[in-house]
Amino acid sequence: MFVAMNRFRINKGHEDAFEEVWRSRDSRLKDVQGFQSFHLLKGAFDEDSQTTLYASHTIWESQEHFSAWTRSEHFRAAHKSARDTTGMYAGPPVFEGFSSVLAE
Amino acid sequence: MFVAMNRFRINKGHEDAFEEVWRSRDSRLKDVQGFQSFHLLKGAFDEDSQTTLYASHTIWESQEHFSAWTRSEHFRAAHKSARDTTGMYAGPPVFEGFSSVLAE
Prior knowledge:
four-stranded antiparallel beta sheet
């Protein structure tokens, strides 16, 4: 199992618009080999930076399946957005990939 | 769905011992109401800090189920360790809780 996460810091007041970007995208993940599940996760609000932590959280059968997806047409389609995201992001997304070493 | 993650920075050379701490713990998570899955995840090695990112990754039916577990005997049992962890941690664990806002 491989978990691909992208962490986003979203400025206060832009939370709904950020979620709408994800809701309206054309992901077609279910058609991709090795895809298991996707969740958009909402974390805590940080008082200091006035941002909310979000994470896209995708589970793949293996890291190889994830890598193949990032080189595909499906990937380009999922990351194409016509929406205005001005002021939404407090910084660039931070990618983290994880492999499972123990399961219960 | 609620995802509870604890992030750990493990010093180089202590990776196997850290994984063994998790392998040998008495978690009994499967007996806990609202528990869905647990994975210990291994992320990337960071050259600057010479540490590996790990995350414990537990999925719960709801945040309320997770909170109830943290107040239980099961929780205390799972976090009791007789092992020597000197030099293992580059810092304290960082907790992050997430609620799912979108699923595919």
